[in-house]
Design a protein that fits this description.
This protein is of the alpha+beta class and 746 residues long. It is 58% helix and 11% strand. The chain has 25 helices and 17 strands. A seven-stranded mixed β-sheet has the order 14-15-13-12-16-11-17, with helices on both faces. α13 runs parallel beside α24. The protein is flat.
Length: 746
């Protein structure tokens, strides 16, 4: 019983000591934030795995089972064919054509009844996203929505269409006998949905969360554990002198940290519970986190805050019990340890030049080009903090002279502190500047993988949708093709066919005189070969995105009937195009709806190269996650650096307290805090963003960089906001300390 009372007393002592310490409030908030960020980071790891596992389970459950020899003549079968479509500027999604084939035809999960002929069932998220394109009527009459059981996640886009005329049992249509492992051996080739192809691997996502959330959280934890260590070291020495054991010191340290850790756990647990109970839309990414996936891993999600709590307390106790180097001894510490900073700072411009201009010395395909760039980036990461620290130290000398000349005590003190302790500034800006450089590199290289996407976007910028290609799904009749052409108002149609396999290398363009004139081509009575430059940009882009290298163009004038027949009977390698002579854009959603009204299975309608733009959307979405996680990591690192510097600033706050009497005011503390906390952080944010953008500049696609002005403003703005908050906080605490100071003897 006495042992229990002693333990309670020691915990209470730690709690009181934490409140009365010089940086007690700062450490309290730091520990709370560290617990919260670490718990949410661990919860994010659980959420990523839960989503990937849940989507895999749902996808497998709806994957068709193709008949094997034993079931070759199954009594209940469904005709099945997977196609695709897209909304403007968004990723592709599956359009599944299905129809009863024999007996009690099985339905995929998510459908409770068969749509009628010419009807379609859409996922709720697709209906919401496609309102502007009248998606409800694109594929026919709306038969209802797909239940969540048939979707890999609530935000999935998926369509089930039952064609008006049904589906034949001939290729490319497949016959399926059921869905999911319970019905037999699933056939992955028939799986609906494009997520498996478009989603990045789980390991990549987990690595991003670890690097951009977990590691910054660990850095914040280390700083929080050591905040106010000067006063705690003296307390530890006193406890040891009074005969206290290591267990006693551990209980005191636990009592000091347990309340902020508990509050952090409570907030984190509330966030985890909200995600388990309700779907959460993640900002900026436009992604909805499915609570149904998380519920299966609710136990692991619940352990994340508890694990963070235990890690926090363990770290605090270990940090308090660890021996302090230099804690004893009377020899003053030398300030010469920072003489290497100016020497290292001189190398920073050289490293930046090497990273930006060095690759130009080598050919684009040379390995030396990449190695030179990486060497320059590594050198910049190592030397930029030293450069910033040296600049602030030089600025400190100027501030000192300025404060002395104009009688500004706050400026004088800040200048002396800044010029005397450049190493502290280097430590302050290191994490923020490195994180900004790495974030810019990650985004730049992410964009490099979308070269075709960039080219397609440039094509769309040049000609818009004044010309679109129409790719029918399967063979169609000439009457259906004629009906489609007649349904497009104020437009002309042409047909572009590749070589027929002979020795000829030319492309053949079929069209009537009106269509040829719209493309600035002659209307010859006989076929004519066009040599040289093509005047019309629509035709140039149309040929550019035709899968045939260096074609010669042959013009063949045909009447509308012949064109319709050729377009209907042409192979998949031919290109049917519709264009507006006046250059006005065509409505792609209207043409898609028209195609489903006239053709059995609709058609793919897009501007030249737009399919590449659609294929690059997953890369764009992944880039959004990189920006979001990177911003969160930078915010945590900036907070970490600011708290560390603020604690150091407040440790010397009592030494500055007499200045309030000598100067007759408290402005000295605001000025000193501004130059100690605000200035270096703002400089790190601005310099890190600017240098990061410069280092990423060589990583471009067709001269286009993915490092935008908005990104630079966002990264700098995040650091600026955190810097202002920490400056205000440091000023407030320092002033409060000064107000409680009294000269000895009073």
């Amino acid at each position: 019983m006495d042992t229990l009372k002693l333990a309670r007393r020691l915990l209470a002592i730690g709690r009181v000591a934490g409140r009365r310490a010089e940086a007690g409030g700062v450490r309290f908030v730091a520990l709370l934030l560290a617990t919260l960020v670490l718990a949410l980071s661990l919860g994010s790891l659980v959420a990523v795995h839960a989503v990937y596992a849940g989507k895999e389970e749902r996808r497998t459950a709806r994957t068709p089972v193709a008949p094997d020899r034993a079931r070759e003549h199954a009594a209940n079968t469904t005709a099945w064919l997977v196609g695709s479509d897209s909304l403007d500027g968004e990723r592709r999604f599956s359009v599944v054509y299905l129809a009863p084939h024999k007996g009690n035809a099985p339905l995929p999960p998510g459908l409770d009844r068969w749509p009628g002929p010419g009807e379609a069932a859409l996922s709720p998220a697709l209906r919401k996203a496609g309102v502007g394109e009248d998606i409800d009527r694109r594929y026919g009459k709306l038969a209802g929505t797909i239940d969540e059981r048939g979707l890999d996640e609530p935000s999935e886009w998926l369509v089930y269409v039952r064609p008006r005329d049904g589906l034949s049992a001939q290729r490319p249509t497949d016959i399926v006998t059921g869905f999911g492992p319970t019905a037999g051996r699933v056939s992955a080739a028939l799986e609906p949905g494009s997520g498996r192809l478009d989603d990045k691997p789980e390991s990549m996502f987990q690595t991003a969360v670890i690097g951009m959330l977990v590691l910054p959280a660990v850095a914040l934890l280390v700083v929080a554990a050591r905040t106010g260590a000067h006063s705690r070291d003296r307390r530890t020495a006193l406890i040891a002198a009074l005969g206290g054991r290591r267990l006693d010191r551990a209980l005191v340290a636990t009592g000091e940290a347990v309340l902020p850790a508990v509050l952090g756990v409570v907030v984190a647990a509330a966030a985890v519970a909200a995600a388990v109970l309700h779907d959460i839309r993640i900002p900026y990414t436009d992604y909805t986190l499915s609570s149904s996936h998380l519920r299966h891993y609710g136990w692991a999600a619940a352990l994340a805050p508890l694990t963070a709590f235990l890690i926090i307390l363990t770290t605090v106790v270990v940090a308090d019990l660890a021996p302090r180097r230099g804690a004893s001894g009377t020899r003053p510490r030398s300030t010469s340890t920072h003489t290497w900073l100016p020497r290292l700072a001189v190398l920073c411009p050289i490293a930046i030049i090497l990273a930006v201009r060095g690759p130009d010395l080598f050919t684009p395909d040379s390995v030396s080009r990449t190695l030179t760039s990486w060497a320059g980036i590594a050198g910049t990461i190592l030397t930029l903090p030293a450069a910033i620290a040296t600049i602030t130290a030089k600025a400190g000398n100027l501030l000192t002279r300025w404060g002395r000349a104009h009688g500004l005590p706050g400026t004088l003190v800040a200048g002396r502190r800044t010029s005397t302790h450049p190493g502290a500034t280097a430590r302050l800006v290191t994490g923020v500047s490195i994180a900004l450089i790495l974030l810019m590199q990650a985004i730049a290289w992410q964009g490099l993988f979308g070269a075709q996407t960039t080219a397609a976007r440039q094509t769309l910028d040049r000609i818009g949708r004044s010309v679109v290609t129409v790719g029918t799904h399967g063979r169609v009749s000439a009457s259906a093709m004629a009906e489609f052409f007649s349904g497009v108002p104020a437009a002309e149609a042409v047909l572009l066919t590749p070589p027929d396999g002979s020795q000829d290398t030319y492309l053949t363009l079929y069209g009537d005189c009106a269509a040829l004139a719209a493309l600035r081509l002659p209307c010859p009575a006989r076929e004519t070969r066009v040599d040289g430059f093509l005047e019309d940009p629509k035709l140039r882009e149309l040929i550019r995105w035709t899968p045939h290298m260096d074609p010669e163009l042959l013009i063949r004038r045909v009447d509308a009937r012949t064109l319709t027949e050729r377009a209907a009977s042409s192979s998949n390698s031919a290109t049917v195009a519709v264009l507006r002579p006046d250059g006005e854009p065509l409505s792609v959603p209207a043409l898609k709806r028209l195609s489903y009204e006239t053709f059995p299975r609709g058609a793919t309608v897009s501007a030249p190269g737009e399919d590449q733009l659609t294929a690059g959307v997953p890369n764009r979405d992944q880039g959004r996650w990189s920006v979001l996680l990177g911003m969160a990591g930078i915010a945590v690192l900036a907070t970490t650096a600011g708290i560390s510097t603020m604690a150091e600033f407040l440790r010397q706050g009592r030494a500055l307290a007499p200045l309030s009497v000598l100067t007759g005011g408290l402005r000295v503390f605001r000025t000193s805090a501004a130059w100690s906390v605000l200035g270096p952080l703002v400089l790190a944010g601005a310099a890190g963003s600017a240098v990061g953008a410069a280092l990423a500049a060589p990583v471009t696609v067709s001269g286009e960089s993915y490092i935008t002005g908005w990104l630079l403003l966002s990264t700098t703005g995040v650091v600026l906001v955190i810097s202002l908050l920490l400056w205000g906080w440091a000023s407030h605490v320092a002033i409060r300390q000064a107000q409680t100071w009294r000269p000895s003897g009073e």
